[in-house]
Design goal:
CATH class: Alpha Beta
Distance between the termini: 56 Å
Radius of gyration: 16 Å
Protein name: PcfJ-like protein
InterPro entries: PcfJ (IPR025586)
Coiled coil: 4-34
Number of domains: 1
Keywords: Coiled coil
Structural class: alpha+beta
Strand order of the largest sheet: 1-2-3-4-5
Number of helices: 4
């Protein structure tokens, strides 16, 4: 009985989150649209901006961290990026638009990965591109 109840609650929670995401989508697009399309790679790691609230939900679910539940998509001074290798998510990156620095970069369950320093270097190398979009 507990298992069925828990499964039902989980399904209801997912439906609720999807509804919240759809409602927040328009505000997110207005706030962050000028950054959409930002993507860069060093040939091994690909980093791209999350372009929707739904992508924040998917990122948070896949990476088992709070990027969606803590409403990072609604923070006007934060940009959220996803770092992937061979199509697999490896870290989620938060950039401050105030300082133009990486605030945090975390892998699954908020752990650092073997690619952490490489990701930070790649972000730093491309920070000027992000800054140019911020002032555009």
């Amino acid at each position: 009985y507990q298992t069925k109840r828990r499964a039902r609650q989980e399904r209801e929670n997912i439906i609720k989150k999807r509804k919240e995401a759809m409602e927040a989508e328009q505000a997110y697009k207005q706030l962050k649209a000028k950054f959409f399309g930002i993507e860069f790679t060093d040939g091994i790691i690909r980093i791209h901006i999350l372009e929707s609230v739904q992508e924040h939900l998917e990122e948070g679910t896949a990476m088992h961290h709070c990027v969606y539940d803590a409403h990072y998509y609604s923070k006007p001074q934060s940009l959220i990026f996803s770092a992937t290798k061979d199509g697999e998510r490896i870290e989620t990156i938060e950039v401050s638009l105030e300082t133009m620095k990486v605030v945090q970069s975390r892998g699954v369950c908020n752990k650092n990965t073997e690619y952490h320093e490489q990701i930070l270097a790649l972000m730093q190398k491309n920070m000027r591109m992000i800054a140019q979009r911020a002032t555009a």
